[in-house]
Amino acid sequence: MRAPSSALLRDLPVLLVAVVWGSSFLAVQRVAEPGTVVAMLVLRFGLVLPVLGLFAWRALRRLRRAEWLGGAALGLVLGAIFLLETFGAVHTSATNAGLIISLTIVFTPLAESALARTALPRPFLAAAALAVLGIALLTGDGGLRAPAVGDLLILGAAGVRTVNVLATARVRAIRESDTLAVTWVQLATAALVFAVVAPFVGPMPWTVAAAYGPAQWGWLLHLALLCTLFAFFVQMWAVRTTSPSRVSLLLGTEPLWAAVFGVTLAGDHLGPLALLGGALVLVGTEWGRRSASAPHRETAPAERESAGRASTEQESVPVRPSVPV
């Protein structure tokens, strides 16, 4: 009787990460408008970095110059993900955003296969086609209209996430680096870029902060403390206490939770064809997740270990990065 109970206790925090990630797109819509996206990101990172820095301080002092530079380069990519996801989230529905971003799950194996010049199994290709068909139905209301700007931005974010995962696996300078320290460097780099750009693209962060009411501050804290810090530390704990495949399976429920929050709290309305599209996305991405494991078992040990580090560290990284929208 103890084994199932112990497994549940290990799984529950990871499942909670998927739930809070699923709520992140709704949270973004509650705290940001098109003109305040960059300022909001400065505020969010301003809350995260000091806390994360307390835990990472010792490891940061041990980082070499090459590790700082490698983390900073990846931070620029991470910043692009945040911008695309956040701007996308305020221009489309929370449901669409959560489902479209899940395409990273099929994009990444496709990109890895292209780089390695290896063939993917046919079931994976079928799953990818199913997911893409689902996106077409979901964003086009059955093909009756073109995707919204927000849908395209989120699709772009899924593509950049794929670049982030692949780059993380191949940046030699950080392969043996402390995960916590490198994550701090990435976030700090992205935050610095946002802080420099903020005065030129909208109101200053402190102006936005002063305009926030209690509800908006609550959502901002939700993004910073739960969607970022809580998610990161749970992943670090989970990879040491359970299998990566189990963590991946639980985190893969994120788009389902995004749809739940979008429909129940954001008031998203999906027509019959859009509902079918959403279901196809969920089925296609999960099918792709399972079938894509076959080619990974055939890769060289060193390459497989590197890819495993990337998926652990980034899919927050979803990756979904460990620090998602």
From TrEMBL:
<feature type="transmembrane region" description="Helical">
    <location>
        <begin position="152"/>
        <end position="169"/>
    </location>
</feature>
<dbReference type="InterPro" id="IPR037185">
    <property type="entry name" value="EmrE-like"/>
</dbReference>
<feature type="transmembrane region" description="Helical">
    <location>
        <begin position="217"/>
        <end position="239"/>
    </location>
</feature>
<dbReference type="Pfam" id="PF00892">
    <property type="entry name" value="EamA"/>
</dbReference>
<feature type="transmembrane region" description="Helical">
    <location>
        <begin position="123"/>
        <end position="140"/>
    </location>
</feature>
<keyword id="KW-1003">Cell membrane</keyword>
<feature type="transmembrane region" description="Helical">
    <location>
        <begin position="93"/>
        <end position="111"/>
    </location>
</feature>
<dbReference type="InterPro" id="IPR000620">
    <property type="entry name" value="EamA_dom"/>
</dbReference>
<keyword id="KW-0812">Transmembrane</keyword>
<feature type="region of interest" description="Disordered">
    <location>
        <begin position="290"/>
        <end position="325"/>
    </location>
</feature>
<keyword id="KW-1133">Transmembrane helix</keyword>
<feature type="domain" description="EamA">
    <location>
        <begin position="14"/>
        <end position="139"/>
    </location>
</feature>
<protein>
    <submittedName>
        <fullName>DMT family transporter</fullName>
    </submittedName>
</protein>
<feature type="transmembrane region" description="Helical">
    <location>
        <begin position="68"/>
        <end position="87"/>
    </location>
</feature>
<dbReference type="InterPro" id="IPR051258">
    <property type="entry name" value="Diverse_Substrate_Transporter"/>
</dbReference>
<feature type="transmembrane region" description="Helical">
    <location>
        <begin position="12"/>
        <end position="31"/>
    </location>
</feature>
<feature type="transmembrane region" description="Helical">
    <location>
        <begin position="181"/>
        <end position="202"/>
    </location>
</feature>
<feature type="transmembrane region" description="Helical">
    <location>
        <begin position="37"/>
        <end position="56"/>
    </location>
</feature>
<comment type="similarity">
    <text>Belongs to the EamA transporter family.</text>
</comment>
<keyword id="KW-0472">Membrane</keyword>
<feature type="compositionally biased region" description="Basic and acidic residues">
    <location>
        <begin position="295"/>
        <end position="307"/>
    </location>
</feature>
<feature type="domain" description="EamA">
    <location>
        <begin position="150"/>
        <end position="285"/>
    </location>
</feature>
